[in-house]
Specification:
Elements (H helix, E strand, L loop, with lengths): L1 E8 L4 H15 L1 E6 L3 E3 L10 E10 L3 H14 L15 E7 L4 E2 L4 E2 L8 H10 L12 H5 L4
Antiparallel strand pairs: 1-4, 1-5, 2-4, 3-4, 6-7
Length: about 150
């Protein structure tokens, strides 16, 4: 099944952390089919922190959405994901499930598609590199259309 993730962080060796995360995701989740370029972006939400490196990935995976979440959280934990000082604060690695096929899941621990996907340029820009014509099942707009603000 087609899984779209955005990974990134703003602490430590950011480039090495992205590369290591890609290796771990491919080992644990499935084959990485496409990778966007790596983007340097300003923090979103809480802006008084270092810039992030972000990358979108398309992965072929046979795991359930909840298994994917558990694997992503396990990988994040290897990086000591974030200081718990503040929500949306600094982190070594964050793995966001943006889309998984056309699944729509709304639970306490997992929301697919990602609830902030349409508001974050650091999500839409790298996604547009790997799947510009992917249509969001809720907005019925393509990633490219959302990135260009053509609502």
């Amino acid at each position: 099944m087609n899984l779209l993730l955005v990974i990134g962080g703003n602490l430590g060796d950011k480039l090495e952390n992205i590369n290591t995360t890609c290796v771990l995701l491919e080992e644990k989740l499935g084959k990485i089919l496409k990778k966007s370029p790596i983007y340097e972006t300003k923090a979103w939400g809480v802006t008084d922190q270092p810039d992030f490196l972000n990358q979108a990935l398309q992965i072929e995976s046979n795991f359930s959405p909840f298994e994917v979440l558990a694997i992503c959280q396990e990988i994040e934990t290897k990086f000591l994901k974030r200081e718990k000082k503040r929500f949306w604060g600094e982190r070594t690695m964050d793995i966001d499930i943006i889309y998984y096929e056309n699944w729509q899941i709304l639970t306490k621990n997992l929301v697919i598609p990602h609830p902030y996907r349409t508001q974050r340029k650091f999500v839409l820009e790298p996604l547009a590199d790997i799947c510009p014509d992917f249509v969001d099942m809720i907005t019925q707009k393509s990633v490219k259309t959302m990135l260009n603000g053509e609502w």
